């Protein structure tokens, strides 16, 4: 049986004690988000009684309560263990290696698509100096190096020594690439020394996005361009029979997991306040129909468990949430914004000071 089977739903509702028909259906609605039709409910009760999984108690008509038999409880416990095992096999429980996670995202269809969009919007020319802020393990440095050609320079900056080491190793054969340990809030670069700059899912994590934008504005030359790809985690929508459960899951992500969870929608305003012109904003919505692929990016089990520990979901609701996601059909979506910010041709790094 599966959790959406009428018989399984009936058994689940009887786990805490006897109920009559109307109360069973009310409990099923609370559990699954929908009531069973009268035919489905009483057909399920009849079949379960024939299998000796439930038994009737004293009562009149349809108000007659039923309860689990010992056999029924054994079947229920076995099915719940089986479902839990399936769920645990389907979802990643451990937090993935950071470098592996970034490489995994870059290898998805949507990752390749939005990264190409960022590269196109950067409009890099041969001989340019291009800055990748939060370059991570160097995922995109080779593409930038190809765009600037050997006559240009690519500077990758990251605050994590492990990321810097990996990026340097990956770009050792690219003489145009210079990877540096540094803080995006205080860039180790001279004023007006960069033609193009990018961030890719970096500003969602920094302490002060406005300061990073101000620093980027400082190091860009007149006519320079910054292209940012940042998510809006408040847009995370996961189909579930009870919308409040999926909303609670998303609220936990935005409240507790990601520092600047709605940075995507804030970028046009923040960039304008930093002195940029913002000619282009492109929404890129990732749609997931396969739960395993979505889980590799969204981490359903570990984040549902965190949401339960933080009080956003009960443990029972978190388990029901995962059980539902493990079944087909599955749907989830989240929107990332690609924002283009430009420095005017006549601007100077000191213009806003």
Automatic annotation (TrEMBL):
CDD domains: AdoMet_MTases (cd02440). Pfam families: Methyltransf_31, PadR. GO terms for molecular function: methyltransferase activity. Residues 126-232 form the Methyltransferase domain. Residues 10-77 form the Transcription regulator PadR N-terminal domain. It comes from the Bacteria. Gene3D superfamilies: Vaccinia Virus protein VP39, Winged helix-like DNA-binding domain superfamily/Winged helix DNA-binding domain. InterPro entries: Methyltranfer_dom (IPR025714), Methyltransf_Superfamily (IPR050508), SAM-dependent_MTases_sf (IPR029063), Tscrpt_reg_PadR_N (IPR005149), WH-like_DNA-bd_sf (IPR036388), WH_DNA-bd_sf (IPR036390). PANTHER family: METHYLTRANSFERASE. This is Methyltransferase type 11.
